[in-house]
Design brief:
By secondary structure, the protein is α/β, with parallel strands linked by helices. It has nine helices and eight strands. α3 crosses α8 and α4 packs across α5.
Amino acid sequence: MRDINIPLPVARALLSPIFRVSLNARLPWQMQRLLLDIGSRAQFLPSGTTVHRLRLGGRPAERITAGSARPNLNAGAVLYLHGGGYAIGSLATHRSLAARLAHETGCTVYVLDYRLAPEHPFPAGLEDAESAFLELVGNIGYRPEQIALSGDSAGGGLSLATAQRLIAQHGYTPAALGLIAPWVDPNQVPDKFRDLVINRPWSRACAAAYLGDGDGKDTGYAPLHGELRGLPPTYVQVDVSELLHAQCVEFVTALRVAGVHTRFTESQGLWHVAQLQAALVGPAAAALTELADFLREAVQPISLRHLG
């Protein structure tokens, strides 16, 4: 499935200037979005991928499958929420990652184009994610326990907030949470100034744009401080070099205190959401495979996957 295996030092050298230019708090949000969409063209799709555009919860979305264009409801689904500080990121930037999840899990992966800040601050994105999950259950026909929520960075925080809302307001517990460097408390100011991908001024600009006129203490905005008990099995991946590493450690500790079945992987030598470059970098592909294995086991229990 991996197209190229660029050595890590070379990949880091190539990516660093790209992110320094594109994730710059001085650039208008629209320009940042455009630059990331252009860069996403280097992230290849596995052969045999089918991408179907649809609307989910009233928002544009993509249904991604390996092979057949028709989803197999019995195989379960992953609702993927992309990262980008709640202000950038798109279906295009995360299509390759989602396609690889579809191939490696055997599930249909739905990627949601939720509304972005600053045009649509909190809780717009959360409302969109909630509506998308409810439509997967109510109109498409999945059971809640057949759907895993997954996301990276801001999309990881949004996945957590969505699960909390689904449990509290609808009695729906997703099959699992698969989170890549989740940003679970935008109020926190990182100690480090930057990592390979993100920097403190940009992350603070994203946090302010997403909050808008809202209350920073709202647990929908900062789900780290929301109810963690009763969450489904959760897998968190992060690299030790990331600005969000300390926050992820705090989050995992809180999950375990709350009695949530938790898996935690700390990589070394990768970067923030390196899984996006799984088509280009072997260790990033390996990390994404681990996430896919976790999601597949949660959505398709062994007793069911081996019947027949």
